[in-house]
Amino acid sequence: MKSVNLKRLAQELNLSVATVSRALNDRYDISQATKDRVRELAAKLNYEPNPYASSLRRQRSGTIGVVVPEIANHFFSLAINGIEEVARLNHYHVLIYLTHEDYQRELDIVRLLAGGRVDGVLLSAASTSYTDTHLEMLRERGIPLVFFDRVHQAPDNAQITTDDYESGYKATRHLLDVGCRSVAHLTIAPTLSISRRRMQGYIDALLDGGLRYDPSLVLHAQGRREQDVEMIQDLLHQRPGVDGIFAAVESLAVGTYEACRVLNRRIPHDVRVIGFSNLEIAALLDPPLTTITQPAYAIGKEAAKVLFKAVLKNVPVSSGHSLELKSELFIRESTFPAPKLVKSA
Amino acid sequence: MKSVNLKRLAQELNLSVATVSRALNDRYDISQATKDRVRELAAKLNYEPNPYASSLRRQRSGTIGVVVPEIANHFFSLAINGIEEVARLNHYHVLIYLTHEDYQRELDIVRLLAGGRVDGVLLSAASTSYTDTHLEMLRERGIPLVFFDRVHQAPDNAQITTDDYESGYKATRHLLDVGCRSVAHLTIAPTLSISRRRMQGYIDALLDGGLRYDPSLVLHAQGRREQDVEMIQDLLHQRPGVDGIFAAVESLAVGTYEACRVLNRRIPHDVRVIGFSNLEIAALLDPPLTTITQPAYAIGKEAAKVLFKAVLKNVPVSSGHSLELKSELFIRESTFPAPKLVKSA
DNA sequence: TTTATTTACGTAAACGTTTGCAGTGAATAA
DNA sequence: TTATTCACTGCAAACGTTTACGTAAATAAA
Lengths: 345, 345
What we know:
Two copies of one chain form a homodimer. The first copy, chain A, is α/β, with parallel strands linked by helices. Chain A is built from 13 helices and twelve strands.
């Protein structure tokens, strides 16, 4: 019940607490003989240093904080996987916080973290409105911050993202290539830079393809599953000419499938669908979904690497450390050109 | 850069550190006037108490540890979601650790946690071999532990599980009901109690259904995606008579779909498939997958609740606090009886 | 020999809180 | 008047580490 500490070890070995501490930390000014003695007893008694005492003394927590909108989401759980990997290699611990897309909650969390609980923060922004006061708090306290995926347009922050503009362009372009003439775009909060960049890619691809950009074909979802599906249904119903849909996030691609099922629209015969997604089973959907897939695991890993560079060297991160990874297009049946399908159907 | 602490506040207010601390903690023996003064300045200076000093002094970390085999998995991410919810309500922080199904890693993690970093632990066991030495470490240190889903047969531990036996029975029974005569079972490590219980349900349902239990129809997967799919292919190939498959974990249900695709076996025409799964999009698969779905979110929530009861009241958890939640059967096309399908195909 | 250097360890302060105890001045009771 | 209570506040120790500094003994240099 009573945990063994340095004092206990010191008494039992007839040494001072300082010597024991130094022996365990493998300091140069302790003889090999005592180091061995100390370590042996420590192992025998299952000694584990008290992390809070240690963190208090060296002003360093050995912990990073990860703040994400949600966790039941393939992208984020894969990213966290990558983050955890890097943290473990650096003997660091990982605190997880969920904002549930709520800016206020994000603010509260960051305030807490700025209190010194962590040595660094990885953050993927909530979709609701934004000021960057809380980021200032971290900066004031000298706590490095690296954004990943959902970044915030702060003056000089490191951020790990994907080529959202190019991806948006590529996705839209692909729809045009397979014959779509009226492409809708489903996205989330326009305050998010990823949304804006994906959408800009969408717009530019339309224009380059000789189509005009029709804002009424852009649907901003709320993130509430059922309501979003209804909105998609409404869109498909009111604009029967829509023959292609580009979903900027996975949940909206899935929502499109559901809406199409309800409305009896055939994919890809009536409408072709492409979506950002990290679903491993996209290929097993009915029909297999064409996806733009982000390297989620790599994003988490790289973001953590950049953060640790700053944390361990005790230097601030800057936009110079930013990275943009490439996402990949997987073409599947949901965007097959119509003619082929008509035959086999 | 320099963080504001109690001393700073005390100086600025001409009070002692003790008074400031008590004022912020809303102690009864501080006048309302000083409380107001203190709080005002604290808010103005953005004071956040140093969590490590605080944790060191009161022997309490305000943190729980969550240990799971993996996170890129619907069940676990949903469970973590539930856990985080409860933790947040209790103003607790959540440390995440991944074992990647590696027992040695689980051991190392528990050893760390037993060092006092957390006030309690939620654990879902890795699938590899098992002794319960590390659980003893937690018990010795008086750190409550609650298992969820993947429990370990420790003498007197609290555990939150689902009705695995009944679920296994129900799933198998369902396959028999729709006409299967040769049902294979895909599962993971037999050391895990969930595996054993699900399998026992499978066996009993077979016997009750007048079939015999054939161990060669049980496949123990390794958790390596590609190899698992190959094993499933081999099974289907060598035992062409198999007309039903019960997958004890989601990945194996998905693997079955892939194997069937490679071998050109039609689901459900040639073989019917049911699997444990928390995929929200099971209904969108080709064909829609019949699932046994665990209340993952609720499991996380309940496990956390039980843990906090122990943590906050400072009492040990015991098996008396264990809970068994019910999983649900969602019947979809992958287990439709053959005749119907022959027509529409 | 004396003096400088190295080796190995101890002393004590510090990190920022919390809290038992004591103390103060004022108000009330005896 | 004195004693007692009450409402506040301060002093100082404690939590378990880490580390700057000091020091004694042993060795090297003079």
